[in-house]
Prior knowledge:
274 residues, Rossmann fold, ProC C-terminal domain-like fold, 2 domains, 7-stranded mixed β-sheet, 11 helices, 12% strand, binds 1,4-dihydronicotinamide adenine dinucleotide, cytoplasm, pyrroline-5-carboxylate reductase activity, Pyrroline-5-carboxylate reductase, P5CR_dimer
Amino acid sequence: MSHSTPHIAFIGGGNMASAIIGGLIRQGMKPEQITVVEPFAETAAKLLKDFGISALPAAGPALAQANLVIWAVKPQVFSEAAAPVMPHTRGALHLSVMAGIRTDSICRSVGTDRVVRCMPNTPALVGQGITGLFACPSVTTADKVLVEQVIRTTGQYLWVQQESHLDAVTALSGSGPAYVFYFLEAMTQAGVGMGLSAEQAYQLAVATFSGASSLAAASTESPEVLRQRVTSKGGTTYAAITSLDDSGVKASFVKAMQAAEVRARELGDEFGKA
Length: 274
Ligand SMILES: NC(=O)C1=CN([C@@H]2O[C@H](COP(=O)(O)OP(=O)(O)OC[C@H]3O[C@@H](n4cnc5c(N)ncnc54)[C@H](O)[C@@H]3O)[C@@H](O)[C@H]2O)C=CC1
Ligand SMILES: O=C(O)[C@@H]1CCC=N1
């Protein structure tokens, strides 16, 4: 937050909001520059303890000072949450982290077309997230810069030019951490089956994922080439990859992500009716 001193309001102060608030505070934003509406007392107490922010239990005139409003409630409660916010924030830029809800519905519910939709992921909690962003036509270059300043505090980001591509981002990186955890579970289970302790197997699995990811990020080679470098002809990796191919794991994985994309689209259809 360098060149300006914006005021940011969060509607919903749960996991995703906390990940972003943590990033903003680490970058030097003051708690006084942040307003949070959070009706759940226990979550509000956590915001006070972690960040020194006293959340409002309900929307009110204090929201009018926000130049940016970040929507971080569950999609199911959005329209109910939006009604009391709208009268105070029509002049603000709005950023939604909610899965599924499309910009046409958001614009209608918040009373302005200055809306950016994004899809972050949970590694944002440790500053290593990646977020896909989509801007409505009324969003200005300065608006985009403000959004980038905020999202950068949680990790990487990229803009997509078509809103439907956010469904692909959701299927890939939004839900993606769960796929990695699923693999970690399977690798740990297999390691335990081979006689390692659960702790040993889990440490090996996590370090392998982060190490291989760092290697891929640092390398100009394709993942295919990196994989081939691990795979000696007739060796152990060859045996494992052949077994994965014989079981159709890659095709199943593609199918799983397609199911996530379809579900993202369905959520948009469902909440668009509200
Ligand atoms: N968890 C994930 O991996 C990802 C989640 N998202 C999206 O982020 C959004 C928030 O998710 P989480 O932070 O995980 O949920 P969460 O349940 O931790 O946070 C939502 C918060 O909204 C509060 N709330 C409920 N009704 C409200 C109202 N009327 N006004 C203001 N606040 C209200 C709740 O008390 C809760 O603290 C969801 O829309 C989800 O689709 C997006 C990307 C990834
Ligand atoms: O599973 C979900 O619907 C949300 C969106 C991306 C991650 N979690």
